[in-house]
Amino acid sequence: MSAASPDRSRSIPPEAWPPLARLADAASRPVQRFFQVEAASGILLLAAAAVALVWANSAWGDSYRALWHTPIGIRIGAFEFGRSLEWIVNDGLMVIFFFVVGLEIRREIHQGELSEWRRAALPLVAAVGGMIAPAMLYMSTAGGRETHSGWGVPMATDIAFAIGVLTLLGRRVQPALRVLLLALAVIDDLGAILVIALFYSAGVSLGPLAVAAAAFVIILALRGLGVRNKLAYFAPALVVWAGVYGSGVHPAIAGVAIGFITPVRAWLGPTGFVKRVRAPIDSLTEREPNPPSTHDVSVALDRVSRMRREALSPAESLIHQLHPWVAFGIMPVFALANAGVKVDAVSLEGSALHVALGVTVGLVVGKPVGVLIASAVAVRLRLASLPASIGHRELLVLGCVAGVGFTMALFVAQLAFLEPKLLAAAKLGVLAASACAACAALALGRTLLKPGGARGAALSEDEAECSTAK
């Protein structure tokens, strides 16, 4: 065996049985390769949605609905808090999703595609156009008194699915188009968050909101005192979530707000880490020929651990830690809980039909129309400029891809419609529209875009991390 390919069995823990360890390694390698694929999160989302649809429409459909209505809660003395499993996913786990969204937005504003007006102008204008046009088309199609609350449903883009569609186009997609999509999606998320906060929150109760504000101030104070242990922020963050929820504002806003104030500057940074990490390592090597004691190694490791924690900013560190859980855990579970529409029970008549059509037209037609018109006007007025490799063909494909609304659209639909028949129609519209938008983007991409060689081969590491986190 060559030095380039060392025997893996030599690196297993001393207590492990080599044959069993090699078997486990061989079994886990395909799973590891899957999670390294750019479109893995989108594939998993699609699989979760498919399972939900099949399960809800099968002979075991009642078990699907019973599962998500299972009551779960805690009881401590006289205090009791219980909610359904669906609520825990939509109002609990999804707060972590929105927390990561807040981190992403803050990072992009600090040092990413939104840090300079020159780079942010085009995706900002395209995103705004891609939100206004779908809402207007929805209102013109389904703007009745019963249905007007759903105007926010077709405004959102699902970045995981969108990146998956672009990945399927391979070398036809230039890196600039991917970067533009990521920036557009970040702004799109910010717009959706503002819509949720302003239009999809119940009557605000000031008492719980004051409690949330006080806990928020505590988080700011801890940050001002230089507290770096992330666990110290957990209790006040939980109080912020509870206060926002009790006030009538959707708790997703709490996640975004906390993510938005998370520090984005590293204490040491990569250079400082490299310089300082040498001292504890050198302190061990200086003891040769006598081997260092276990205590010496423990002290050195503690110092290295603290430096490692400060090599990245808290925001970057949290994104790195949480994005696998969000992309491969929370989002698929959300899809499984919300995509299970019982098709034969959806009555596409009257207002329900208007909702389904409004959502479908908004996503499939409104997104590309809004992106194209807004971008063209901004370029004509010299408010923004197109990258060298981006033309109207690429913008059309981008607009179609942006019509894949899935996760955020389903989330807004949950808030927009309390009536079951309208909610089911909205969900069906989101699923159908996302499928149509993805197919249209693939067809147009293969027809209009020419292979661009190695430049369009893959996402950079930073882009891949950003897309997975969302």
Weakly predicted, low-confidence segments: 1-9, 453-470
Q: Give the radius of gyration.
A: 25 Å
CATH arch. level architecture of the domain at 40-76 and 83-94 and 117-201 and 341-469: Up-down Bundle
At the first level of CATH, the class of the domain at 40-76 and 83-94 and 117-201 and 341-469 is: Mainly Alpha
Strand content: under 5%
Characterization of the model:
This protein is mostly helical. Among the domains are: 40-76 and 83-94 and 117-201 and 341-469, Na+/H+ antiporter like domain (Na+/H+ antiporter like fold, Up-down Bundle); 269-309, no CATH class. Helices cover 68% and strands 3% of the residues. The protein has 18 helices and two strands. The chain has helices at 18-35, 40-56, 61-68, 85-111, 117-142, 159-168, 175-199, 206-224, 234-247, 252-260, 269-285, 294-309, 314-338, 351-380, 392-402, 406-416, 420-448, 461-469; strands spanning 71-76, 79-84. Strands 1-2 form a two-stranded antiparallel sheet. Strand 1 and strand 2 (79-84) form a beta hairpin. The longest helix is centred in the C-terminal third of the chain and has 30 residues, at 351-380. The radius of gyration is 25 Å and the shape is globular.
Primary descriptors:
470 residues; mainly alpha; Na+/H+ antiporter like fold; two-stranded antiparallel sheet
Short description:
The protein is mainly α. It is 68% helix and 3% strand. Strands 1-2 form a two-stranded antiparallel sheet.
